[in-house]
Amino acid sequence: MSMNYGANPEQLTALGTTLKNQVTPINQLIQTVSNVLANTTWTGPARDQFEADWNGTFKNALTRLNTAFEAAGADCVSRSENLRVVMGAR
After folding, report:
1. Is residue 3 part of a domain?
2. Most buried of the four, 6, 16, 51, 74, by CB within 10 Å?
3. Cβ–Cβ contacts within 10 Å for residue 15, how many?
4. N-term to C-term CA, the chain
5. DSSP letter assigned to residue 44
């Protein structure tokens, strides 16, 4: 059985750039929700639970997503550069 591996360097670069570009909107989302929550008049156990979830689970998940996007994006860009070298494009 024959296996073919490969990638289009330009598309791989575009994917990497797209992934890395998602970090800013996610950071903006975190900041926006945090600011709106801080300025929302809301008291009681539902607020306490949401705020605990937001400051724990939700923000942590978004931060981990940012870390993953940054790493995967950098990996894609690096692989595309390596492909260009191997293909003699650089």
Report:
1. no
2. 16
3. 19
4. 32
5. S
> Tens digits of per-residue pLDDT, 12-25?
999 999 999 999 99
Residue 84 to residue 59: CA distance in whole angstroms = 37
CA geometry: angle at 72 spanning 80 and 10, to 5°?
Answer: 25
Residue of 83, 72, 81 lying closest to 21 (CA atoms): 72
- Note whether residue 5 is domain-resident: no
Q: What confidence tier does 72 reach under pLDDT thresholds 50, 70, 90?
A: very high
| 19-61 pLDDT per residue, tens | 999 999 999 999 999 999 999 999 999 999 999 999 999 999 9
Q: Which amino acid is at 18?
A: T
* Structure-token match 């937001």, residue found: 54
What sign does the dihedral 77-80-86-90 (CA atoms) show? negative
